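Cross-posting from the modeling subforum.

Setting up a comparison between two proteins and wanted a second pair of eyes on the formatting. Protein 1 (sequence, then structure tokens):
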Amino acid sequence: MNLSLFNSVSSIMTKNTVVVNPNTIMDKVCEIFETNSFHHVPVVNADNQCVGMISKLDYFQLQDEFTHFNVSRSKITNEKFFKSLIASDVMSKNVVSVDVHDPIMKVLDILLENKIHAVVITKNNLYEGLLTSYDFLELLKQSHQQVESQA
């Protein structure tokens, strides 16, 4: 991996992400968050355009307030509630996106200026992947390891 911040986002973006469509029932999205460690699920339409994003924070905010106390009724309440919603009901529609050829530094500036954690990567306005704050932490770690190995 080339670690320059001036390379294109394609060098560090996450490809082959899990996505849902706007009509995906939210209990499926819940299952995705419960069984994976990532924090963003892009909502992609039939034309492969990203039309929204659901974050793990969005998911947590929708849960019954007693979920964290392990109250048995909260599980039933959550199941019913999430089966009554679809992804387009919950997703953030104002998704920030950049082109796959844009420099990494551009995305870093966008994340910092907007205080967001993920940017959608597109090619010809079609969904290609994500670049998250976690990807920048990985880049920093690898850069540090590279410097350490040269010392």
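Protein 2 (same layout):
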Amino acid sequence: MKKWIFRLSILLNVFFILAISWNWINSPSNELGRLEKDIEIGYFQSGKSVFRIPKGLTVRNISQRGLSAIGQFENERFSILITPDDASLVNYDLPKDSLDTFGNSYSAGTPQNSLQDGIPQGNFIYELYFAEFCGRIKNAECKIEIDGNKIIVEQTENTNLTGGNEIFSGLILKHKSGKWILTDNENDVNADEIGGCTEIPIIEFEKKQIEWC
């Protein structure tokens, strides 16, 4: 009788260890990290930004691993813990068909992946590089809104430039050199000189930077 109980105990322990190992291999790591870039967030399959998550926030990795990751949609996932003292913040009594996953879920980086003729669409935070100082002063922050090839550049709460809140409003066009420029004159695509203090700013989408004067 005692041998039977002993063998059963060993078998249950082995099963318990295997179950824990299986769960660890296939579950998210829940590793904590910090955002190193601002992220534009939009509705799934939408090209427009809904809100922005700023860099510096602590996030948790909730990507499935192992067999659980098979068929997982958008594998790079993280969560941000929200803990308000407000029981009415979320409505859990809505009809399930109104909570269609793809109709309501958010997707990080949507605007960056949404291009129109090579131009990112949506709202972004960029930096102004002051060409006349050749990097001797710190870049200034600006927020931009791009719709098609139309752009509006405005100051943020961290910017203190003269001339009002709106810095620029006009077009994004590709210059004959292959660089993107900000202008209100379509003939500027053939200008001999751009950037610097030529009054034809250059915008760099990958750097998120505008060369200003």
